[in-house]
Amino acid sequence: MIRNPQRPGPMPYHRYRPFQDRVHVPEFDRRWPGARLERAPLWVPVDLRDGNQALAEPMDTDRKQRFFELLVRTGFKEIEVGYPSASRADFDFVRHLADRVASGAVPEDVTPVVFTPARPDLIERTFESLDGLPRTVVHLYIATSPVWRETVLGRDRAEVRRTVQEAATLMARLAEARPGADIRFQFSPETFNLTEPDFVLELCDGLTELWDASPDRPVTHNLPATVEISTPNVYADQIEYMHRHLARRDSVILSVHPHNDRGTGVACAELAVLAGAQRVEGCLFGNGERTGNVDLVTLALNLYAQGVDPMLDLSDIDAVRDVVEYCNRIPVHPRHPYVGDLVHTAFSGTHQDAISKGLARHAKDAAEAGIPPDLAPWNVPYLPLDPADLGRGYEAVIRVNSQSGKGGVAHLLRTHHGLDLPERMRPEVSRAVQAVTDDSGGEATPDDLHAIFRAAYLEPGRGSGPVALESWSTDRDAAGEHRFTCVLRVGDRTAPAEGKGNGPLSALADALTRAEVTGPVDVLDFSEHAVSTGSAGEAAAYAECRVGDRSAWGAGLDTSVLTASVQAVLSAVNRTYAA
Q: pLDDT per position in the chain (579 positions), as tens?
């Protein structure tokens, strides 16, 4: 173990307290472990506010507009658009949307959300930004946990409660002064997961009453895991406790806002929905302060992969990523769930073999059922969902390097070059590829694989090997016996040769055996097929031959099936001869 030279002993774990020493979670008969995720919650992206606050270079109006348009196209119905009192840029963007309502900048089914702290002057500034917007949610927040009250705010519970009540009263009055606008309210007890449950209930229930929430005009209570402090099940317990104890529950939209400090933001959100949450705030691909907000794309596609409608359109996920990367100026990691460049890619030989067989089985099952493959039930190993559903092709699903095996090599040669290698030939071809990738240390593209295959298996049958045919012909007598007549070249020497057999290839093998240039030749296995890509009318042939006590595979490619077959036998002979 490497030690910090300034701290030679173990890491000082004793400095930190477990969650149970920091917040009390009442005992109750939890029900969320038996619940199931059967429908999507209301997704609320906070990229334009919370995500924007985390950027080294916050978005300008143009980038915010582009991001907002992406969120609308994707299907979000509530979108947090800014923190108008925090900066001129945020204020201006809300005004930008308000000034363009008449031109359709804010669709009728989309509600902007604005964020404000519990300060009268900032609340008034926030409401100034809303003039002209037909619908909004005004999101009030204040930190409520003991450490924030004591260290940051310098207020006790009564003072925090009074601050919240005064702020909420001002919000109600300012909303009433705009009778033509549909303004609803949201409250976040920031650092909820570190706050005493009875205090959160007191604050939330007080606002539900003050704002006179009703089923047709509910209030949103948003309960953030502002900084993760526990395993996700504890957050689920906290959410379910609130879900079952909030007053006028049918008049409350219970929302969650998990961050990702422990790397469990997605799990927290999913368990919170099981526990009664109806709304989830987060960012696309997990941007946000510290380790980020929960990733809404991952959450939505997790549902999708379980057969649940995510209520979002992510069918062109690369286009979504392009906009997010442009606006945030932060790249998405290649291993990020669902969207990363490598998430559908297998380099490992065993994985490649399973995927290749799974894709072939999927196509076969779809054909037998008489339905298009893109509508057939999906059950392919190592791919939790069909990359095509996200606008991805299959080109990057299998990629080959020194870790890869026969299945991956065969898959790429088949899908990119139409060469369907016999099962027994694949290990030998894989070894030829691995010899190259071991030396290079890099990846072999489909074209690289074809070049390796061509050099190792096709060229030896086309005259480049030590044994070649200067000329050849076949015929068959009345009894059905085949005769193969040729001029053999072995090194610099040429000689005529002739053989007989029950087919052209057995006659060729007999001719090679009689010429005594290589030893007895036997064709052990043979197959051929039409090539599905490349030049029209080409055929591929594969032959395994034993020459003396050695055996090898060869391949041929030609517009003539017979010529391709002769090349395959000659290739196999040359490969044993070279060995």
A: 455 566 667 889 889 999 888 899 999 999 999 999 999 999 999 999 999 999 999 999 999 999 999 999 999 999 999 999 999 999 999 999 999 999 999 999 999 999 999 999 999 999 999 999 999 999 999 999 999 899 998 999 999 999 999 999 999 999 999 998 999 999 999 999 999 999 999 999 999 999 999 999 999 999 999 999 999 999 999 999 999 999 999 999 999 999 999 999 999 999 999 999 999 999 999 999 999 999 999 999 999 999 999 999 999 999 999 999 999 999 999 999 999 988 887 766 677 788 888 988 999 999 999 999 999 999 999 899 999 999 987 666 655 555 665 677 888 898 889 999 998 999 889 888 888 877 777 777 888 989 999 999 999 999 888 899 999 999 998 888 999 999 999 888 899 999 999 999 999 999 999 987 768 999 999 999 999 776 568 999 999 999 988 899 999 999 999 999 999 999 999 998 776
**The dihedral formed by the CA atoms of 214, 130, 296 and 317, expressed in degrees to the nearest 10:** 130
The position carrying tokens 């409250």 is 187
C-beta separation of 64 from 52 below 8 A: yes
Q: Which long-range contacts (CB under 8 A, 24 or more apart) does 83-88 make?
A: 83/49, 83/53, 83/114, 83/115, 83/116, 84/114, 84/115, 84/116, 84/125, 84/126, 84/128, 84/129, 85/116, 85/117, 85/121, 85/122, 85/123, 85/125, 85/126, 86/53, 87/58
Query: What is the spatial distance between Cα 450 and Cα 458, in angstroms, rounded to a whole number?
Result: 10
Give dist(CA 422, CA 547) in Å, integer: 20
- Phi/psi for 419 (5° steps) reads -100, 110
**Angle, vertex CA 530, rays to CA 527 and CA 532, nearest 5:** 125
- Distance between CA atoms of residues 80 and 111, nearest Å: 9
Answer for the pair 572, 463: CB distance below 8 angstroms, yes or no.
no
CA atoms within 13 A of residue 445's CA, in its CB half-sphere: 2
Question: Of 44, 43, 194, 193, nearest to 115 (Cα)?
Answer: 44
Q: How far apart are CA 542 and CA 423, in angstroms?
A: 11
Is the overall model pTM greater than 0.85, yes or no? no
3-class DSSP string for 84-122: CCCCHHHHHHHHHHHHCCCCCCCCCCCEEEEEEECCHHH
Sign of the Cα torsion 260, 263, 265, 268 reads negative
Contact 130, 114 (CB under 8 A): yes
How far apart are the C-alpha atoms of 120 and 20, rounded to whole Å? Answer: 36
State the Cα–Cα distance between residues 284 and 373, nearest whole angstrom. Answer: 29
Distance separating alpha carbons of residues 386 and 67, to the nearest angstrom: 26
Question: H or E segment at 304?
Answer: helix 296-304
What is the spatial distance between Cα 45 and Cα 281, in angstroms, rounded to a whole number?
6
Bridge partners, 473 (sequence order): 485
